[in-house]
Predict the 3D structure of the following.
Amino acid sequence: MPSLCRISVVALVLLAVTAPLWAQADHGSQYTQADIAAGYRVYSSQCVQCHGGNGDGISGVDLRRGVFRRAASDEDLGRVITGGVPGAGMPPFKLEPAELTGVIAFIRAGFDQTVSVRVGDPARGRALFEGKGACATCHRVQGRGALNAPDLSGVGLVRTVGALQRSLLEPTSAMVPANRPLKIVTKSGETLDGRRLNEDTYTVQLLDGRGRLRSLAKSDIRTLTYAAASPMPSYGSRLTPEEIADLVGYLASLREP
């Protein structure tokens, strides 16, 4: 079998003709830990030589983070792998269905073998984000929404689909340290709750609960306490598995910093 590591930047660029940026499968692909583990075995034996252990061995491509010159749906990726790209040096690969599913699952899971990942429809996910999920009451996307929680405009560039799914189901365990809420009590007695934006040796900058940017000298702070738990609720009991998948699909499509 030809090496899968020959799935090159050229092949992925050609997908741009038929696939929009970071298009997702429209049926909600469900990948189990077994699928992902099988994909890891294929990747380790066939792909790691070119793409590297972290998936970033080719300039401009980061498979672990789902960053390509042009991205594609699962179906498009499967067609390219099995059909090849005539004239681009990539031959068709006669993979077993489980091998093909596994490679795609491993990439979509961000190389994380500890999760089962389902990626749904971004359009339905956006409707959930703005409606039933009420995500915009805390988060902002491309200038729309609140600033009480991190701006998600480029979250698809920095978080894998596995991490996005975990943040919806287990927000505390998935919380990034830099995004931890904090409480500050100043020496004058003022109490501020908010989200840290920046901190250096002498100052702390935060957005308070009303969305105001505040900069405080550390010499004026009596206590500074970081929250141990995320204020974001778990959506495991608020949304159906299908809705979680759609929301993951939408968040993964957000790729404009």
User: Anything to note?
Assistant: Residues 140 and 161 are 19 Å apart (CA to CA). The chain has nine helices and nine strands.
